[in-house]
Amino acid sequence: MTNYDYDVMFIGSGHANWHAAVALTQAGKKVVLIEKDLIAGTCTNYGCNAKILLDGAADVIHQAAAYQKKGLAGNLKINWPELMAYKHETIDPIHQLLEQQFAAAGVDVVKGVASFVDQHTVIVDEKQITATDIIIGTGQKPNRLPISGKEFLHDSREFLDLPELPEHMTFIGAGIVSLEFAMLVQAAGTKVSVIEFADSALRGFEKKYVDKALAKMKVLGIDIHFNEAVKAVSQTNSGFLVTTASGLAVETNYIVDATGRIPNIAELNLEKVGVNFDRTGILVDDHLQTNVAHIYASGDVIAKKIPKLTPTATFESNYLAALLSNQTTAAIQYPAIASVVFTLPRIAQVGITSQEATATPEKYHLATIPFGARLKFQTKNEPDAEATLVFDQENYLVGASVYGDEAPELINFLTMIISQKLTLSKLNKAIFAFPSQTIGLLSMLSPYLKK
Ligand SMILES: Cc1cc2nc3c(=O)[nH]c(=O)nc-3n(C[C@H](O)[C@H](O)[C@H](O)COP(=O)(O)OP(=O)(O)OC[C@H]3O[C@@H](n4cnc5c(N)ncnc54)[C@H](O)[C@@H]3O)c2cc1C
Ligand SMILES: NC(=O)c1ccc[n+]([C@@H]2O[C@H](COP(=O)([O-])OP(=O)(O)OC[C@H]3O[C@@H](n4cnc5c(N)ncnc54)[C@H](O)[C@@H]3O)[C@@H](O)[C@H]2O)c1
């Protein structure tokens, strides 16, 4: 039998990999983690964590606005440089702390770009490293539009590091990244334009809630242009000019290209080892194994239809840890995956959508829960907060969408009901805190739920 340097090699140190790297080391495997950038990947350094920290101040402004003429006076203002300094103070040390934790756990960390040499070997800065099993968890990177003036475009990573806010910011794309950032900088006083190629935004989320959020953005002064294909960007005396195929011209000071994310596979030399992939990522079977034995993929780099999110990457990492330590031989089985757009208010989604439910009335039925209007004392004056719930024929909850400031917490509660198939009698065995939006929503959904 060939002796390799390691039992398991992980390429990439994000959530897709690090949970398994630590767990397998603890299970007695010899493990190496290779990372070309900061340890811990996108979510920790350039994604969710940095975003939600900056969003905190905008969320306070948004919630305070609901009490204008209802007992609260005066205007709050974001000091962006100070907020950015707080972001750096909080986020910047995390990668070092995690690297120390990985080392303390016994994981070998190697810095550099990994590229395949053969099916058990990668090269990193001229050093060859071998392993029995290899997990590719290299994530995604921002798409860059191939247009004239593309050098003037910025991505989400640069946005999350902006030292000063420009007067006018333009986002290309009306997806999750754009609309979260658009509301954040609007709350900080920047004029915002959004230019979207398609005729709708945030596909995959409940349309009526997306429309509510878009209407709110319009009232706040955010310009959103649909059905516009950006053709070119040029420099002007005062900033930049974005032009579209139809002739729309937007003068602006800073442009974010948020037209999606593409898998990080170009540097891996996958052709050399014959690992199959397409433009959406690496192809895997139901054990997350590629077409090459002993090479697996995890997280955002996988070609998959389910949401490419941190909790999905973590779930896959935990699955691979169990698989490679012989705790399971079963195929991966994904539960319902909760997803949140951190606009103000938030839009959350889990499980079967109302669109799917409406298309198959023999299987599902819907209930709309206007908890913001009905439970004013339990919400912070958000009368349009609402949930749309999907039940199957036995009245089990199988899907939910929520629009409201506490949607991330409420969707987690609803996700638990869905994934554990909780009935009303099971839920009634618990005593929840009151007043709270959870208990309010529970009281309103009880009549519909399986007894
Ligand atoms: C702005 C933004 C906000 C987001 N907000 C949320 C959110 O609120 N909630 C949520 O659930 N998800 C969010 N996401 C998505 C989330 O960040 C990803 O789903 C998650 O990071 C995926 O983890 P991963 O480990 O698969 O990939 P990553 O975290 O991207 O890690 C991959 C790592 O591999 C490294 N790498 C790549 N190629 C090589 C190579 N050849 N050799 C060595 N190393 C390599 C990369 O440098 C990177 O560190 C957000 C993403 C962005 C960009
Ligand atoms: N809260 C979260 O969970 C969260 C937050 C941010 C990012 N993410 C992750 O990052 C991914 C990427 O987010 P994203 O917002 O960049 O991508 P996205 O796919 O959500 O949105 C991209 C948008 O750009 C539009 N577009 C594409 N080409 C265009 C063009 N030439 N001109 C104008 N518009 C164009 C698309 O039609 C789409 O609406 C998400 O799908 C998710 O996996 C998650």
Note down, in words, how this protein is organized.
By secondary structure, this protein is α/β, with parallel strands linked by helices. It has three domains: 200 residues, FAD/NAD(P)-binding domain, CATH 3.50.50.60; 110 residues, FAD/NAD(P)-binding domain, CATH 3.50.50; 104 residues, Enolase-like, domain 1 (2-Layer Sandwich). Helix content is 32%, strand content 25%. The chain contains 15 helices and 24 strands. The strands form six sheets. Strands 1, 2, 3, 4, 5, 6 and 19 form a seven-stranded mixed beta sheet that branches. The longest helix has 18 residues. It is globular and about 75 Å long. The model has no long low-confidence stretch (mean pLDDT 97). Nicotinamide-adenine-dinucleotide binds next to helix 7 and strand 20. This is NAD(P)/FAD-dependent oxidoreductase. InterPro entries: FAD/NAD-bd_sf, FAD/NAD-binding_dom, FAD/NAD-linked_Rdtase_dimer_sf, Pyr_nuc-diS_OxRdtase, Pyr_nucl-diS_OxRdtase_dimer. Belongs to the class-I pyridine nucleotide-disulfide oxidoreductase family. It comes from Ligilactobacillus ubinensis.
